[in-house]
Design a protein that fits this description.
The protein is of the alpha+beta class. The chain has a single domain, classed as Glutaredoxin (3-Layer(aba) Sandwich). It contains 8 helices and 4 strands. Helix 3 runs antiparallel to helix 4 and helix 5 crosses helix 6. The longest helix is centred in the middle third of the chain and has 17 residues.
Length: about 220
Amino acid sequence: MLDTTAPSTLVTLDFWADLACPWCYVGSRRLALAVAHEPDGSVGVRWRSFQLHPGLPDSGADAFSLAEADRVAVLKARVSAIGREVGIGFLDGPLEVAPDTSLAQRAVLLYDGEPRQRAVSAALYAAHFERGLDITSLDVVVDVAGRAAGDRADRVRARLASGEGETELAADLLEARLIGVSAVPTYVVGGRIAVQGAQEVEVLRALIAQGRRTSD
């Protein structure tokens, strides 16, 4: 649910992403920079959950073998270099497989419609990619999400233990299939205009402007 106190010219932007996707982390930073150029309260960004196949490399590739190691190394170097441009310090090391991020994504969805949702997703991205923490662990997710949201750890734990966020996560994953979201990050403005990939800030600003013209 979006904040109904926002201006009537609000542009809604759905950000489809997975917390195990490095390009989504870059895309989220670039999106934040794009939104920072807009008038306060004029862009409502909503997290929408997508999941890479657990067990595949977090580059989002459909298959992985030792023969592709060189290509993956180049890709990792590229995303690390681009990450540095937006203040992300990706950990060095071999390519890790994409974990099942269901629990972490549910933690993000606990704050749907709240400004602190962005802080929670950003903290979980940083925990995974910059600190090397296990975001499939309940203890880790509770600690990271609670600190980012300014919420009590026991409250976050209780909400997750009760199954909160499961319905929303399932709905997002189903909608992603129905509307054809096949790669992330994907940005959808006003429910109609979509682009894929970790786009440059200026591209995202143009997307927001197009969404604003369409809604007028």
